[in-house]
Amino acid sequence: MGLILGSVLLYKSIPNPSTTENSSPKAFSDEPLLNNLPESAKKTLLIYGRELIINTAAYLGPNGSIASISNGMNCGNCHLEAGTRSNANAYIKVAATYPKFKPRSGRVESVTFRVNDCLQRSLNGQILDTLSMEMMAIVAYIKWTAGISRPDHGEIHPGTPELPVLARAASVINGKDVFRTNCVVCHGNNGQGQLLPGATGYKYPPLWGDKSYNVSAGMYRLSKLAGFVKYNMPYTEKQGAPMLTDEQAWDVAAFVNSQPRGNKRFGSDWPEMAAKPYDYPFGPYADAYSEERHKYGPYGDIKKK
Ligand code: HEC
Ligand code: HEC
């Protein structure tokens, strides 16, 4: 165990790949692509970066071997298949599009900044020093995915697809039924997920509570959660045709995001009020609609403005 935040880069100090089972069972692996690269310090760094993405908890979770700065989830729980799966927040456009201006922060963001955003919000945790080995490795790996092609997939779509909005508000009550039928078996009755033996991470990640993403995460916006769930849940190894209808996806998203979770807020978010997305659940707003209406919809009128 060595705390290397802010330390000088020493490639030989990269830990051996963890032997723990990871929570991301998958049909496709980019691992061979990495392993086939010629031996170099860069390759070692990339392999470590991939490890940190799919086994974040083992290194940076509550019992992490490097530091305890996150909630026990893995980056790969939402960036499926180490950020290479289509419609599952794939990283493939990051190298080409960053640094870029983002309205949430109101500034030009680097990849490092964006990684720390997900650490503080999606992993309800703390930032990594920008000069740490771990940050270098994560950023190197994320950029490297730009060159990936997936014969099993066709074109990889980055980000999460946005579903057409419903004419009605998303229903927490209907969503509870969808949850019971389609999600409980893995994510648990109380959305608490299921830990791996040894508690180094989750087999099934939590959907709410302190151990899940907090209210400042992208997933706390209904459109992001509904789109992710529609295309990726219930989880299957091969990404097949969606199993839920759009209505079921919106409703289950409403149920999940109606449950309690970490309340960390960032006062500097969305400095320009009018730039807030239609489903951003915290006012003040440039329009007259309530927080409740922005959170659950109906969104039609709000989107038109
Ligand atoms: C709870 C789900 C979740 C977890 C866990 C998570 N992220 Fe994210 N991440 C997202 C979502 C959703 C987005 C897209 C947000 C948006 O569209 O604005 C995103 C966006 C990103 C982006 C920007 C991608 C782009 O194309 O602009 C990077 C980089 C990133 N995450 C890195 C990470 C890293 C590294 C970790 C682990 C330390 C992590 N994320 C953990 C949900 C998550
Ligand atoms: C067969 C088991 C299974 C079922 C059923 C399932 N999930 Fe998941 N879910 C997973 C796994 C496994 C992951 C993490 C995938 C990874 O790390 O590669 C995940 C990740 C997630 C995530 C992102 C990480 C997080 O914890 O926030 C969300 C959100 C999610 N599931 C929601 C749902 C919803 C909603 C349903 C029901 C419609 C559902 N899941 C059904 C296994 C399942």
Q: How would you write the strand order of the largest sheet?
A: 1-2
Radius of gyration over all CA atoms, rounded: 19 Å
- Name the structural class: mainly alpha
Number of domains: 2
- The CATH architecture of the largest domain is Orthogonal Bundle
User: How would a textbook summarize the main sheet?
Assistant: 2 strands, antiparallel
Q: Give the CA-based shape.
A: globular
Segments where pLDDT lies below 50 for 5+ residues?
1-12
Query: What molecules are bound to this protein?
Result: heme C
How much strand? under 5%
- Per CATH, the superfamily of the largest domain is Cytochrome c-like domain
Number of helices: 13
**Portion of residues in helices?**
25-40%
CATH topology of the largest domain: Cytochrome Bc1 Complex, Chain D, domain 2
> What is the chain-wise order of helices and strands?
HHHHHEEHHHHEEHHHH
End-to-end distance: 53 Å
How many DSSP-defined strands? 4
